Structures are given as C-alpha cells and as structure tokens.
UniProtKB/TrEMBL annotation:
<keyword id="KW-0808">Transferase</keyword>
<feature type="transmembrane region" description="Helical">
    <location>
        <begin position="37"/>
        <end position="54"/>
    </location>
</feature>
<feature type="binding site">
    <location>
        <position position="20"/>
    </location>
    <ligand>
        <name>ATP</name>
    </ligand>
</feature>
<keyword id="KW-1133">Transmembrane helix</keyword>
<keyword id="KW-0067">ATP-binding</keyword>
<keyword id="KW-0547">Nucleotide-binding</keyword>
<dbReference type="InterPro" id="IPR000829">
    <property type="entry name" value="DAGK"/>
</dbReference>
<feature type="binding site">
    <location>
        <position position="80"/>
    </location>
    <ligand>
        <name>ATP</name>
    </ligand>
</feature>
<keyword id="KW-0443">Lipid metabolism</keyword>
<dbReference type="InterPro" id="IPR033717">
    <property type="entry name" value="UDPK"/>
</dbReference>
<feature type="binding site">
    <location>
        <position position="13"/>
    </location>
    <ligand>
        <name>substrate</name>
    </ligand>
</feature>
<keyword id="KW-0418">Kinase</keyword>
<feature type="binding site">
    <location>
        <begin position="51"/>
        <end position="54"/>
    </location>
    <ligand>
        <name>substrate</name>
    </ligand>
</feature>
<protein>
    <submittedName>
        <fullName>Diacylglycerol kinase family protein</fullName>
        <ecNumber>2.7.1.-</ecNumber>
    </submittedName>
</protein>
<feature type="binding site">
    <location>
        <position position="73"/>
    </location>
    <ligand>
        <name>substrate</name>
    </ligand>
</feature>
<feature type="active site" description="Proton acceptor">
    <location>
        <position position="73"/>
    </location>
</feature>
<feature type="binding site">
    <location>
        <position position="80"/>
    </location>
    <ligand>
        <name>a divalent metal cation</name>
    </ligand>
</feature>
Amino acid sequence: MGLQDRNKRGFTRLLRSFGYAFQGLKHVFINEQNMQVHFFLAIIVFVLAVWLDVTRLEWLILLVVVSGIFALEIMNTAIERTVDLVTEEYHPIAKRAKDVAASAVFVYSVFAVIIGLVLFIPYLLEKFL
C-alpha cells in the first residue's frame, strides 16, 4: 500500500491496493527464478490433471497446494527483500532469517510432491497397466 493511502478508506483505496498487489505478483513472476520454476511445474501438474481427468475434489487439492507454493514463495521473497533492505552486509542473523524463510517453501514443496505422487500414481498405473 502506498504511503498516500495510509489513513484513507474507500473503494479507490481498495482498487489501488489490488494494483499494488498485482505489481508485487508481476515482480515475483518476472524476477524470481524459483517462482518461474514453480509456475512451470504448476502448468505441468494442471496439464497432467486434465489428461488424467482427476475428480473435482482432487482439483481442489491441487489448487490449494499450488496456490500455497505460490503464496509461500511470495512471502519468502518479501522476507528476503526486507532483510536486504535492513542490512547490505553479511550478518549471521540475516542469513538465518533468509534460510528459515526458504525452508518454509522447501518443506511445503516436499509435501506438495508427496501429495502429487499420492494423487497421480493410481491414475498413471491405471492408464499404463
């Protein structure tokens, strides 16, 4: 949110906040390699889900998992940029903050892969056996 919107209310402020959010999302998709990798993998997952004709519930699970990865990667980027803003010099606590934020994405990604395997393997076995 811009500083000019700090103590304002109303529909215009709401619309501006969506614009700011879109700018942040665009920045992450254009500038963050990990987000590009997650996006590419999400496309593969969604194409596979269409091809395998997964159920509505399984689609919902996939959407929650993929959106969770995106949200965590966005938060990780925000934390990293905030740490960079606070200190340009190497500091062990700054490194720890960045590492811990990245670990949240890593943990979620591991479980996303497990969920994908649990969901897709039965369909793939049925299709190819």
